[in-house]
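Worked Example 4.2. Consider the chain below.
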Amino acid sequence: MSKAHIKKMFPGAVTSQGFYSYYHYMIQQDSNHIFVLKGGPGVGKSTFMKKIGQTMLDYGYDIEYHCCSSDNGSIDGVVIPKLKIALLDGTAPHIVDPKNPGAVDEIVNLGEYWNEEMIKKSKNEILSCNLKVSGYFQRAYFALQEAKIALDEWKYYTKAYQDWSKINQMTLRIQNEIFTISPKEQGNERHLFAWAHTPQGKTEFIDTLLNNTNKLYMLEGQPGTGKSTFLSGIAGRAMLYGIDVEYYHNTLDPEKLDLIILPELRIAFVINAEPYAYTTKFDGSIITLDFEQSLDTVQLMAECGENLRDCQIRVNQHLTRARKHSEKAKATHDLLETYYVPAMNFSDVEKKLNSIFNRILAFIDEPGIAASSPVQPHRI
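Applying the procedure from the previous section yields the following structure tokens:
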């Protein structure tokens, strides 16, 4: 049985700033090949990528599934890190334009395999669905903007009662504990999302990202106690030491952080707090950092307790509103797919799948692997 590992993350997210993309961080700059998939909804892009990913996983290669924030059961991309190969969904809203066309990037147009005349018969319905989907997402963005306002107000009250000198001391202590190597060249950075506001609710796959991590720092404490700032400080120091950093941004406010991973040190720092409480199954060493130990909670509650409770209610109400709008967007998008699926020639899509898979096999150095493990036809 293969011991290969699947990592799941979100390259883009529905945020208070609209749809926010880190698609250019999905694959390393020195990639061997990038297949950019084009085509309408329901043409098989996600299924196409999942089958490539699963087959490579069976071959023993670690896989990254870059999940879709509009549907956590779908993916926007699959990356095979060891081979430096990726397949990406290049349709709106995650537009991906080839940077090195022909040399590295290649557009795969699955629209070649549909009956255009059949699709044109549903033109009005398609235009109507697209308009509704855009409208539902805009409503979700408005709801998330209001959630952020309520969360910012919550932070405003809390910050005034935090002992920042103690937070700074803790930050310095942790930095001194983990950075024991001599500085080297500037480290590399990668930016993605660990959480997403999906139609299925707040979604995360953080445990899959910790496979090579030995030590996990859990940051706890209510909003405004300094957790994201702490993460930024640790990440900044790591970069100065020449250590690679994986940044996972907050899905409500992308300027904030939820998680950082230092692969070289096999250490990760993650926030476990409302409104994004994270329950881990991590079996390594867990160290809890309580950011409320230095908070004057008694005085805070005495003077601002009612306001805090109001903020918490509003945050959750608006996050719920955003989810409901996302649910409607997905339902409408699912309806949109019904106009494309009947027009698709999936047998030809299947042939394209196997053609691409055989080209991926050509990048494998192990002799004979393509011959000894022939690709079986897939039904998409």
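The longest strand covers residues 71-80. DSSP finds nine helices and 16 strands in the chain. Compare this with Example 4.1 before moving on.
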